[in-house]
Amino acid sequence: MIHREIMAGGRIRRRLNLNNIYAFTCRKSTFQEDHSQIGGPGFSRVVYCNEPNSPAAERRSYAGNYVRSTKYSPASFVPKSLFEQFRRVANFYFLVTGILSLTPLSPYGAVSALLPLGLVIAASMVKEGIEDWGRKRQDIEVNNRKVKVHGGDDGMFREEEWRELRVGDIVRVEKEEFFPADLLLLSSSYEDSVCYVETMNLDGETNLKVKQGLEATSSRLHEDFDFKEFKAVVRCEDPNADLYTFVGTLHLEEQRLPLSVQQLLLRDSKLRNTEYVYGAVVFTGHDTKVIQNSTVPPSKRSRIERKMDKIIYMMFGVVFLMSFIGSIIFGIVTREDRGGKTERWYLKPDEAEIFFDPERAPMAAIYHFLTAVMLYSYFIPISLYVSIEIVKVLQSIFINSDILMYYEETDKPAHARTSNLNEELGMVDTVLSDKTGTLTCNSMEFIKCSIAGTGYGRGVTEVERSMAMRSGGSALADDLNVAADRSGPKIEGFNFQDERVMRGNWVKQREASVLQKFFRLLAVCHTAIPETDEATGTVSYEAESPDEAAFVVAARELGFEFFSRTQNGISIRELDLETGKKVERVYRLLNVLEFNSARKRMSVIVRDEDGKLLLLSKGADNVMFERLARNGRTFEEKTREHVDEYADAGLRTLILAYREVDEDEYVKFSKNFNEAKSSVTEDRESLIDEITDQMERDLILLGATAVEDKLQNGVPDCIDKLAQAGIKIWVLTGDKMETAINIGFACSLLRQEMKQIIINLETPQIKALEKAGEKDVIEQASRESVVKQMEEGKALITRGPSDTDSHEAFALIIDGKSLTYALEDDFKQKFLDLATGCASVICCRSSPKQKALFRYLERLLLVHGHWCYSRISSMICYFFYKNITFGVTLFLYEAYTSFSAQPAYNDWFLSLFNVFFSSLPVIALGVFDQDVSARFCYKFPLLYQEGVQNLLFSWKRIIGWMFNGLISALAIFFICKQSQEHQLYNPNGKTAGRDILGGTMYTCVVWVVNLQMVLAISYFTWVQHIVIWGSVALWYIFLMIYGAITPTFSTDAYKVFLEALAPAPSYWLTTLLVMIFALVPYFVFKSVQMRYFPGYHQMIQWIRHEGQSNDPEFVEMVRQRSIKTTTVGSTARRAASVRRSGRFHDQLNKNTIAISREEK
């Protein structure tokens, strides 16, 4: 086991000096060029460690550790949220008209204008406040977390809240805790102050990073009381957002020591596999690097909302044009009222001061323009924005409540963090996904291996099983299910089954000695740390990555159990090939040449119990095969075949090889290696690379491993559905290119027939320049290389599919360095053109920041996304329909009254139309309507393209709904006007006035817009029935209650319903006729459209209506009418397999015919 030292208080300090093991990651910091800038601009920060209260520290006035992510503060909420509301041009317009309503120019009362605006603004502000309070609660939880802080003189550590931390504080962070600020690592539970850090919250990676404090601090700071007299000063860079660099110096007593990012522990990363660390707070709160990387939450607006703004602007133009034309006509008619020819005597122009004064007609026209602008404001739906916000919040609640998006394993439901962009879920063109933790579980399983040219392992990957089941191959599927069956408990990281090597049977194999070396290499070549459960004796492992853990677990299960690591030795229990018994062997660990992205391999140098020096190595195939000795390639051909097979199955592969090292050679290597490690020059790493490169050659091939980077449940199926929906998928991963390509095959983003366009900077020219070290030359050459590769890729796509395969597809694979150059302003359009021409894009060595359960994207996008888009689009179109219907009746009445700026309706009728009599049905439409059920959304994925192409909110559809509103308004006004011209409404012979005509028109408007809703809805619920018929009933109830109030308040609506409208049969007959004539045009249009040129969702509705949803031929016919060729996913892979099979049989038939002819 690991050697431990019992410290005061019973704590254990691990005495494993990992600095002797690692070659690269844990290294001494050296002075670099950047260190010369300390003290200058950008490098002025001074930290007094363990002296946060000193006068010098207090003069610095650095930021506290309190963080705030809220959009508002208590003081700024009202002014800032009001500003946000009145940024919307419609709300600003209603504010202006509300102010004008306080003047004599207003055609209606001020209260009836300002009250609806106030309600709308208040509702929006309440929604903003609720959302910001959620952010506030999250801030409170983070700021109130506890951490142990050094008390100062007494040497004790006490728990304090994160928000109380100050620059210079010494903190003690325990295993599995998050770092509360950016810390300078001083020491850890390991003797040489190494610690393991998980940075998933920063860069999305779950692989552990190794950090190491300086020897000068770790050698003296072991216990809490050691900090009582500790004093030091850190001078370093100012706060910045770069997560991967840190430049500073530590002044400790008389020493000046260089600091690098290797000593920096970043806020929000987690301590793993290390019992505790001590650190000095360097950056706090908003100065920390993770907060520096965050941005203020922007006011996000969807594409539909931005287009809606354009419609609002268009409506403003219509309103101003109508007001302008009406004002001109009004001015002309007013001027004609001079000289005793007054036709509009009832307006009393002789008593008018300005408005109807024939002598001042131009000013009357100007005043009329302002009045008309207020009157026609009802063309603009005042409740549109707030209704959309309410609908989006309710949609988010339904998404969160969807039981099919509940992840039972972690007890997590869906959680919509914002409701601003719901409809965008139905308009996604490209999905950018991380790999680790998104497509995969980052849970590696050892599943196959190739040893001495023989393939072992009968395990089946998820991709293979899914493809077999989907292909309808029942026999193959049965075989796979049998192979998948396993007896005994599940072992994490191990999914290997093969009776030839399990339970010690490997000793019976012909190449048993090679198998022994292979399994021994797995047990020895790693940096994992064993932990033995004292109660059960079970050995578990803490490793830097899941890959490492899977390898040591596999070795253990195959009979080579790694159980102890000491300062310079690795102990394993293995089966002795000669005696057939378990023996314990100790391998003296001399060096570890660890894996990194440049080397693509890892090696250890050990001495066995017989005194032999062994170099054990594992790495990527493209670097390992070229390092094999001539006599070490015995199994190369077969191993390459197996590696290709494993890659096709989506497995991650490594090549295992070894060699014996001569004593003299090792002495020379050790001397050069130690000199290179101790170097303080800038070319230190290149020296180490060169020395290790010479050692890791002339290897003897043992075989290859294959681990499954286990996909999350349903990922291949989800990708297939998204691909059928026409959504492009880009994968961003921090992995190396080979791994990224493997996972691309695993999740069906890539397939064998695809042409891969690979852009990277691994060319010999770039490598040579990197060795020369001229930064400007390297940068220029890299840029030119990337541009050239992009142009070549674009040319390949432009040539189009080959004659032999019209289904040819392209995949773009680009590494992070190349991506940096490709996204420069001068070249990003070229990159975009290239990327959009490819079926899939994989970006390697990236740092994505989002994590998700990928399979839920299928339901989130194809079902909820489509519904949200369809509902919001229909909702907005309907809003403009009903407001145009209402507004045009106002315009026609005013035109009928010679543009006298008289409204057709009572003041409160005007105010409450958008608030009470037509708002709830449209909200219900936005929340509950389903143009197509969830089952059909899955069955016809390309339905999703309606959102991507924005077909349901196109200008054609918007104008169509507006035209429908115009038709409805014309029917309402002219039928009502004509029907009322010769009607008497009481025994005294009273004819219809504004009160009766207005009441009749308003009733017709309420009925027509609500019945139009009935025709537009595809999916009725009891809620919609209640709000639609309830809105109509509410109008009649309001009319009776409002009409019963004193005439000073109800004005011309006083008892108009009970005494005039209700008793008159013509009122009811007119309402019926208007409903028929206003709605028949829409009904006829929809019937013709459904029959002769249906949209895709209407075709699916027709299938459901005709009951043909289970007729496979009819369904396939409908699907093929709209689905384009799918180039990504398992469907495309099966189609390609069928095409290959067809071409094979065609070729076979040709050959058969040719042979027959020759025989004749």
TrEMBL record:
The chain crosses the membrane at residues 108-126, 311-333, 365-386, 879-896, 908-928, 958-976, 996-1019, 1026-1045, 1065-1085. Residues 854-1094 form the P-type ATPase C-terminal domain. It comes from the Eukaryota. It catalyses: ATP + H2O + phospholipidSide 1 = ADP + phosphate + phospholipidSide 2. Belongs to the cation transport ATPase (P-type) (TC 3.A.3) family. Type IV subfamily. This is Phospholipid-transporting ATPase. Pfam families: Cation_ATPase (PF13246), PhoLip_ATPase_C (PF16212), PhoLip_ATPase_N (PF16209). Its main location: membrane. Keywords: ATP-binding, Magnesium, Membrane, Metal-binding, Nucleotide-binding, Translocase, Transmembrane, Transmembrane helix. NCBIfam families: ATPase-Plipid (TIGR01652). Its EC number is 7.6.2.1. The lineage of its organism: Eukaryota, Viridiplantae, Streptophyta, Embryophyta, Tracheophyta. InterPro entries: ATPase_P-typ_cyto_dom_N (IPR023299), ATPase_P-typ_P_site (IPR018303), ATPase_P-typ_TM_dom_sf (IPR023298), ATPase_P-typ_transduc_dom_A_sf (IPR008250), HAD-like_sf (IPR036412), HAD_sf (IPR023214), P-type_ATPase_IV (IPR006539), P-type_ATPase_N (IPR032631). It is found in: Membrane. It is a multi-pass membrane protein. Residues 47-113 form the P-type ATPase N-terminal domain.
